[in-house]
Amino acid sequence: MDTIVQPLQWSDLAVLAPELTLILAAIIITLLDLFVPKKWNREWSGVLSLLSLGAALGFVIWTIVDRIALVQQGGTLETIQLLNHSYRVDDFALWIKVLLLIGAVLIVLMSLKAPANANLGHRSEYYYLLLPAVLGAMMLASAGDLITLFIGLELLSITTYILVGIKKDSQGLEGAFKYLVLGGAASAFILYGMSFLYGMSGSTNLMEIGKMLNLHAAAYEPLIYVSFVLLLVGIGFKIASAPFHMWAPEVYEASPSPIASFLAVIAKAASLVLLFRLAFNVFLRLTAASDQASDQLLFLYQDLSTIMLVLAAVSMIVGTTMALREHRVKRVLALSGIANTGYLLVPIALNMLGTGTPYSDSFASFWYYLAAYLFAVIGAFAVWIIVERQSSMREQSTFAGLYHRSPWLALAMTVFMLSLAGIPITAGFVGKLYILLGALATKALWIAVVMMLTSAVSFYVYFGFIRQMYMRQGERDKVGFAFPQQAVVVLCLAGVIGLGLIPNLPLNWIHLVFSVPADIFTQ
């Protein structure tokens, strides 16, 4: 694969079209909100946000289709480097952006005509803050430099701090304050870890850092461990992995439901992408030596892999066991997210060289399970927005008798819960199976056992919703809902079932264009 490196030109605007679309949309919505009469309904800002996200998604998909067609015709793909290698457009970034934008489209659609108890009173602010948050997540996917990574992370973080407290009641402000304090501490850990990487390499470019650590690993070995642990602690807070997870249930509970779904999917996915970039671009390069130090470097990489696997295992166990005793819906979904963070950490943490034969499916299994998790969680939050409109309760008992009030809505929620539990024919089952096979292929048998045991225990958590919907008596009034929430439920249902029935279609496309040396190590 060739690499194109050139100064930023006007022609590069086409490459940056998805990001520029969101920037322009956020500016336009902000300016219009200042001049449009206050008595006008602010749903127009949601429609504009939805159109801008759809346009950005269209640009990304267009690029992916062109790259797939080029490979099928026997052509050579190019990794485009912009701004002195600090921003890159490769297949890793493009496929991640597809999920980020799909998730954002579903969340904005879910928010249109949301009921009053969804607490989205400041509608315009909500929409034009959501766009830069998504932009920050997309920057993390394309970043090739520590500075770009940190700017994208803070753009995402600062906007989500505001979004959590947007309803301005005591619970929301308390949740936003806790999220701000812990998120700021996490950013400090990440920045401190990055400073060690810069100090050891003299560069902020991820490729250069990886090369310099590879050359001087013996001298810097203690500092490599320190920098890695600092980064992992900071990112652990961002992704709500145990034992850095305690903020998640409270913040999810305090947030409006659409924002809680954003934290559960978009913010979590973006922070995992940050870890993916650092783990592969920087620390995986430690194994690239061919001299006498190669065995020592391989041992160092194995240690870092084991640390991440331990974090994954702790997240699975803690998230699942804590969810067993929780009955409030948002808290259950938050704790479920902690367990699923563990599953998503496994493909990143697997020792790709543990068997002598490189394991190359880490990104494919990571992407697939992230897609399955996205559709199931956003779908569950959409159902919850519909159900909570008729009740002031926040417990699982709110779903009591839902099958008799709205059979299709109960069926959709059942599919989402079965997917999160990993029941066959759903996307969640196939995603967990791919991750499990990867663990077995790299001989990480113990993490495979933890995955299977926690998945089995999680059945009780998710079947609690099903028990309420089908086996408990509840209100007899029919469930009323607006078209946007209904559309989100249908789309998420199609995503969960579609990915479960034809998993090979997206995976074959990813395998066609993506490879670790070409998309991760390209300089």
Question: Please, could you describe this protein's structure?
Answer:
- It is a single chain.
- 74% of the residues lie in helices and 2% in strands.
- By secondary structure, the chain is mainly α.
- The chain has a 3-stranded mixed beta sheet with strand order 1-2-3.
- Strand 2 and strand 3 form a beta hairpin.
- Helix 12 (294-323) packs parallel to helix 18.
- The chain is globular and about 70 Å long.
- The model has no long low-confidence stretch (mean pLDDT 87).
Descriptive terms for the model:
523 residues; mainly alpha; globular
Provide the fold topology.
Blueprint: E1 2-5, H1 12-15, H2 17-35, H3 43-72, E2 78-82, E3 87-89, H4 91-111, H5 123-142, H6 146-164, H7 170-201, H8 206-215, H9 217-239, H10 247-254, H11 257-283, H12 294-323, H13 329-349, H14 362-388, H15 402-405, H16 407-421, H17 427-441, H18 445-471, H19 483-501, H20 504-513, H21 516-519
Parallel strand pairs: 1-2
Antiparallel strand pairs: 2-3
Helix pairs in contact: 2-3, 2-5, 3-4, 3-5, 4-5, 4-11, 4-14, 4-19, 5-6, 5-11, 6-7, 6-11, 7-8, 7-9, 7-10, 8-9, 8-11, 9-11, 9-12, 10-11, 10-13, 11-13, 11-14, 12-13, 12-18, 13-14, 13-17, 13-18, 14-16, 14-17, 14-19, 16-18, 16-19, 17-18, 17-19
